[in-house]
Known about the structure:
By secondary structure, this protein is of the alpha/beta class. It is built from eight helices and six strands. A six-stranded mixed β-sheet has the order 1-2-4-3-5-6, with helices on both faces.
Amino acid sequence: MPSLILKVYSLLFKYNLKRQLQTLIQSPVSVSDPFNGVVSRADESIVTSNPAFSKDGVATKDLHIDPLTCLSLRIFLPQSALISSTNSVAGTEGAYGGYQPDINGKGCKKLPVILQFHGGAWVTGGNDTASSDVFCSKLAKSCDAIVIAVGYRLAPESRFPAAFEDGVMAIKWLAKQANLAECGRSSLDKRIANGETYRGRQIVDGFGASMVEPWLAAHLDPSRCVLLGVSCGANIANYVARYVVEAGKLLDPITVVAQVLIYPFFIGNIPTNSELKLANSYLYDKATCILAWKLFLPETDLDLDHLAANLFPLMIFPMYFHRCYLFISHLLNLAI
């Protein structure tokens, strides 16, 4: 049984979330800039990035990757990525102070990458909040991996499919970075072979829109990518995974090897037995969940069997449930 402290925390969390949802429903939403949106709330506790390795052994960096929206990324790089030297400099006035990988890749260890999507019932949270910073830092250290936290657009300022589109944009950007890094290494190898001196030139894409990100160029292993999401972030991670399957080789050399869905925010018009049993428990409140979906889905399409909310809307029939169960069993037998 959960402890008393956990129950009290859950009740307080539910109360605060429900109050915030009700406030957002009653407040007029600004549509003056529909392309921009918001990625965090004013009342959130924010942690600034630190590109130098801190006491917790993780360096962080913020990036904005889409000029048309406020989509942002925060990279968490564990110090275990360094084999010998930290290459971390203390910046003087006007100079960069942070980790700088060796140009030739010396002392740089390749790490898997975890693309992380935060929770928050579609309307709150962020990739730069205190809770996200702690979670992603611990994840990077414990998994010995690069964590890229995605700051997707929040509802109701940006309703479906904005958050899902941001997830797809993030995986596309990661694939582009992997390709730019490979081009950079090939170009550098040729210049070294010809006896030329590297002068700090960088590879950019065909239109000059993207430059290779040095941390990823030095440490990213594109063959080991994991999609991880918490609560509504798990819904985004699942959508991105489906996109990856459809895209096929268009995302090469990025290879998604796993997805981790932590209590995904799925729901449906026909409640399951557990949803009926726990409808007003300390942990789950269906009325609050419906409020969140009301703010996220298009205003004219509040359907809890929407594909963003319910992967298997036909599971209300036993025969469909059993077919889904047999399908999962078949995948497990094939070690997929």
